[in-house]
Specification:
By secondary structure, the protein is α+β, with helices and mostly antiparallel strands.
């Protein structure tokens, strides 16, 4: 079994305000008023989610990196 070394997450504008972040491989969703706050909340939420988990059972290598993609709305020029 090949273990993943990354956890992918997407950050997008929130429905009301701020930003939302959601992981692809694990069930983690969080939000924040600013991008910096959202990323900090995401790192904390991922760490808490993985705290007592068997990483191999989740298909993850020890100490995976979180890779964040920013989803932007298209702008009409």
């Amino acid at each position: 079994m090949r273990l993943q070394h990354t956890i992918k997450a997407a950050v997008r504008s929130g429905e009301e305000s701020g930003y939302e972040a959601e992981c692809v491989e694990i069930p983690v969703v969080t939000q924040g008023a600013t991008l910096d706050e959202t990323v900090a909340n995401l790192h904390e939420a991922v760490a808490l989610h993985l705290e007592d988990e068997d990483m191999r059972e989740l298909g993850l290598a020890p100490h995976p990196t979180v890779v964040i993609t920013m989803e932007l709305e298209s702008v009409n020029a």
